[in-house]
């Protein structure tokens, strides 16, 4: 059901941005980031514009390469990438204790791959919250094709100011999404507000680890590359995220960087030293072919001007992610399960 062909990729490039405006959108997006001299303050104060531009520009590439679920996963030996991604999603459902009939919120849901998998796995009703119109349009179509439009839906809104009443949801989760928040405490407070008392929130956060040295130029470059290629205002540390969720009022049940004991490295799909037929498009060879194809599509006018530059900054992100993973200064799966107290 996911878009898989070259023309599908070309038709989706730019998302809801007018095709004639893609190049200028790329210009504006790149200027936000430290890799091009941009400032963290500007990224945080303009996070809505920055993140929306990012997902309009990048979603078609993600869907072409990753499928419907845009995230990494803890992975066992002998397990395919697709299998590990599904298990990563099932793990969240099990940690939250999801049961049939529960009302669940997916914060920053992308095009809804995890939403659909978790809804089917747990027989729950899942609402996807997303502030990007193009992704919601894709998600609704994929929900229709999956036959779950009656139980799962999407809401377009900023997760810093959710349009839900207090104490609405039986469970809330986020998968590599709240890293886009300009203020983690504010984001977690909104999640706290809409979650019912006594219920849980589970999350996979993108974080820098204790091995990161802000005075190390190589570490700083890697961080800048990851922020550029993933639409992030800043990458927070695991300690900062844990303190932020406590400051929002939650009780911590448990937390762990799941990358630490993953039998296969989480960055393996992107590692240029490895090759896989099952996830070929994510390999260095597959990504090179995609970049060449996008360049050709842009040249003949089937892809908008600026598409090749999007492909290039996504490649820069892949390089930063692999290097950050190998140096153990970055993780995409700092996990914590927290509970909203029964009484405040």
TrEMBL record:
EC primary class: transferase
PROSITE patterns, alphabetized: SAM_MT_ERG6_SMT
Cell membrane found in the keyword field: no
Record GO terms (molecular function): sterol 24-C-methyltransferase activity
A Pfam family the protein falls into: Sterol_MT_C
Recorded metabolic or biological pathway in which this protein acts: Steroid biosynthesis; sterol biosynthesis
Keyword presence, Lipid metabolism: yes
Enzyme nomenclature, EC number: 2.1.1.-
GO CC, alphabetical: endoplasmic reticulum
InterPro entries in alphabetical order: Erg6_SMT_methyltransf, Methyltransf_11, MeTrfase_SMT, SAM-dependent_MTases_sf, Sterol_MeTrfase_C
Keywords attached to this entry: Lipid biosynthesis, Lipid metabolism, Methyltransferase, S-adenosyl-L-methionine, Steroid biosynthesis, Steroid metabolism, Sterol biosynthesis, Sterol metabolism, Transferase
Signal peptide: none
SUPFAM superfamilies, per the entry: S-adenosyl-L-methionine-dependent methyltransferases
GO BP terms: methylation; sterol biosynthetic process
Family under the similarity heading: Belongs to the class I-like SAM-binding methyltransferase superfamily. Erg6/SMT family.
Protein name: Methyltransferase
Lineage: Eukaryota, Viridiplantae, Streptophyta, Embryophyta, Tracheophyta
């Amino acid at each position: 059901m996911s878009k898989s062909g070259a023309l599908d990729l070309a038709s989706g490039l730019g998302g809801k941005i007018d095709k004639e405006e893609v190049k200028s959108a790329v210009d504006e997006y790149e200027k936000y980031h430290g890799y091009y001299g941009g400032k963290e303050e500007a990224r945080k104060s303009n996070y809505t514009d920055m993140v929306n531009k990012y997902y309009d520009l990048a979603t078609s590439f993600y869907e072409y390469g990753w499928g419907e679920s845009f995230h990494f996963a803890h992975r066992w030996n002998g397990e395919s990438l697709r299998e590990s991604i599904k298990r990563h999603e099932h793990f969240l459902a099990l940690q939250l204790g999801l049961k049939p009939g529960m009302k669940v919120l997916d914060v920053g849901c992308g095009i809804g791959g995890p939403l659909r998998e978790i809804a089917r796995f747990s027989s729950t009703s899942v609402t996807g919250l997303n502030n990007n119109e193009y992704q919601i349009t894709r998600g609704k179509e994929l929900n229709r094709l999956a036959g779950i439009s009656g139980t799962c839906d999407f809401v377009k809104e900023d997760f810093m100011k959710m349009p839900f009443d207090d104490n609405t949801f039986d469970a809330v989760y986020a998968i590599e999404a709240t890293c886009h928040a300009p203020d983690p405490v504010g984001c977690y407070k909104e999640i706290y507000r809409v979650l019912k008392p006594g219920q849980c929130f589970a999350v996979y956060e993108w974080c820098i680890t204790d091995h990161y040295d802000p005075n190390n130029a190589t570490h700083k470059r890697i961080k800048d590359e990851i922020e550029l290629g993933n639409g992030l205002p800043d990458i927070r540390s695991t300690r900062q995220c844990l303190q932020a969720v406590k400051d929002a009022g939650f009780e911590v049940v448990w937390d762990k960087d799941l990358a630490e004991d993953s039998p296969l490295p989480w960055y393996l799909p992107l590692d240029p030293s490895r090759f896989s037929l099952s996830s070929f498009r994510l390999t260095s060879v597959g990504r090179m072919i995609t970049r060449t194809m996008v360049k050709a599509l842009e040249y003949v006018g089937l892809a908008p001007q600026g598409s090749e530059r999007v492909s290039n900054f996504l490649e820069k992100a892949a390089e930063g992610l692999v290097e950050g993973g190998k140096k153990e200064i970055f993780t995409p799966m700092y996990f914590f399960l927290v509970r909203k107290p029964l009484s405040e």
